[in-house]
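Recall the central idea of this unit: under ordinary conditions, the amino acid sequence of a chain determines the structure it adopts. In this exercise we apply that idea directly, starting from the sequence alone.
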Amino acid sequence: MKFKKKAAATKQSIPTSSLPDIIFMLLIFFMVTTVLREFDIQVSYTLPSAVQIEKIDNKRIVTYIWVGRDGRVQIDDNIVLIPEIQSIAAKKRREIPQVIISLRVDEGSRMGIVTDIQQQLRKGDALRINYSALQKL
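Accordingly, the structure predicted from this sequence is:
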């Protein structure tokens, strides 16, 4: 009498008992690391183009100043007057000493407005200034 070997009747399957834990951890990770746009831009502007540009690595220390076509100036969510920039820049500098002020100026704006903003930033001791531009292809 010969004995026959029976094949194992178990299925090879992927264990899914820890799948909800993995999904939950990934969800928390992406929620913590995602940075959402914080401001509603109230001025209309078109960035100038440049041949060589550099990206800022740490965007958490950047404060944006938008200058629109019509000469209006916006910092964060507020439209401000040029003389107010000095006190706002000094306050930002006290909160974040390494703050970078990024100017997003419309390409058709007058240089006088930009110069006035630069003078107010100097008076507010905000000396790390960046000029935003689009890369020219």
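The chain has a mean pLDDT of 86.
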